[in-house]
Amino acid sequence: MAENKISQRKKDHIQLCLTDEVVFKTKTNGFENYEFEHNAITEVVFNKIDLSTGFLGKKISYPFLISCMTGGTTEAEKINEQLALTAKMLNIPIGVGSQRHALENKSHHSSYRVMRQNAGKVPVLGNIGASQIAKSKNVIDEVKLLIELMEADAMVVHLNPLQELLQLEGEPDFKGLLKNLEKICSKISTPIIVKEVGSGISKSAAKKLLTVGVDGIDVAGAGGTSWAAVELMRRNEEDSFFRDWGLPTSYCIRKVNELKKNFRFTLIASGGINNGIDIAKSIALGADIAASARIILQEVTKNGVDGVVKLIESWFLTVKKIMFLTNCDNINKLAKVSLIKKRELY
Question: Helix, strand, coil proportions of the chain in percent (round to 5)?
Fold first, then answer.
């Protein structure tokens, strides 16, 4: 019975995220409040602009991650296969959805293994929820199992307190999370990345995570998919306050980036990243790479691998144009560009 409920929940999540009904209603990611400073004397050669960067010790062609989405169902296996092939074609990293199901039922292991089998040598990220980490009595062995199952280059622990609070089957109990995260970081050599799922990570929360040893922060801020909306729709309820709860992505990037003065970590921007302009602005605000999920899920279900490849390539053509107009010939230089707050223009 529990097995059927988990599979059905994952199917519900996929179906709801294929629509645009689960986005934030009044809150945006905040990138529209920033402008690039045009450089009229750019001397960059457009065709020589380098979009590559490093991630988890590997060179990737674009500063972009196909973010964690799904797993544990037949539908998820096909989606993960296509997304993995996309990542391989573009030479970019990819994350899998929550592997909780893999801990509870071996029959769904193939929906996760298919990721590495099709992704080749690109960085692959495993994924487990904070609730499972917090209450685990055998956390080291369980995380090692999930890493081995994926042959993962990093393990993502996702924070979703609002989703757990509103989910019918939710487990809003994270007591012991930081203690177990510290244990994982000290005992497991695989990098640990912590991400939110759409409500953002504040500077103070990020500092605590970095203090216990995590290697990366994915802010996953407000402005894209609202998992509160997803769970409210599953309950046939409406709550405008909690539906739009969270910190905008641009704010999270800007504030968490300040911690790089004292900590070495990878900063990932996600949360409503749906075009090349947002990607470029996120890097200028301090992110090392950007990530998207729902819009990628929609594209792969409509147009398959070719559709996602074309979409991401179109985004980075925009990034390349922005780099030309701001006199940047590589991603490191784009990261040093100062954005102008729109209110300063008028």
Answer: 50, 15, 35
CA-to-CA distance for 45 and 38, rounded, in angstroms?
A: 16
Confidence of residue 3 (pLDDT cuts 50, 70, 90): low
Task: State how many domains the chain has.
Answer: 1
Neighbouring C-beta atoms of residue 234, cutoff 10 Å: 16
Q: Yes or no: say if 59 and 52 are a contact pair by the CB < 8 Å rule.
A: yes
- What range does the domain containing 79 cover? 2-345
Average pLDDT of the segment spanning 98-123: 82
Q: Which of 93-107, 113-127, 135-149, 316-330 has the lowest mean pLDDT?
A: 93-107
Which CATH number does the domain housing residue 312 bear? 3.20.20.70
Q: Are 110 and 76 in contact (CB under 8 A)?
A: no
* Rounded distance between C-alpha atoms, residue 173 and residue 6, angstroms: 18
> pLDDT per residue over 163-195, tens digit each?
999 998 898 999 999 999 999 999 999 999 999
Picking from 25, 22, 33, the residue whose alpha carbon sits closest to that of residue 253 is: 33
Supply the DSSP string of 32-44, one letter for each residue.
Answer: GGEE----TT---
190-205 burial: b if 16+ Cβ within 10 Å, else e: bbbbbbbbbbbbbeeb
Please list, in sequence order, all residues whose beta carbon lies within 8 angstroms of the beta carbon of residue 184, skipping any fewer than 6 positions away. 133, 139, 140, 143, 155, 192
76-109 core/surface letters (b: 16 or more CB in 10 A; e: else): bbebbbbbbbbbbbbbbbbbbbbbbbbbeeeebb
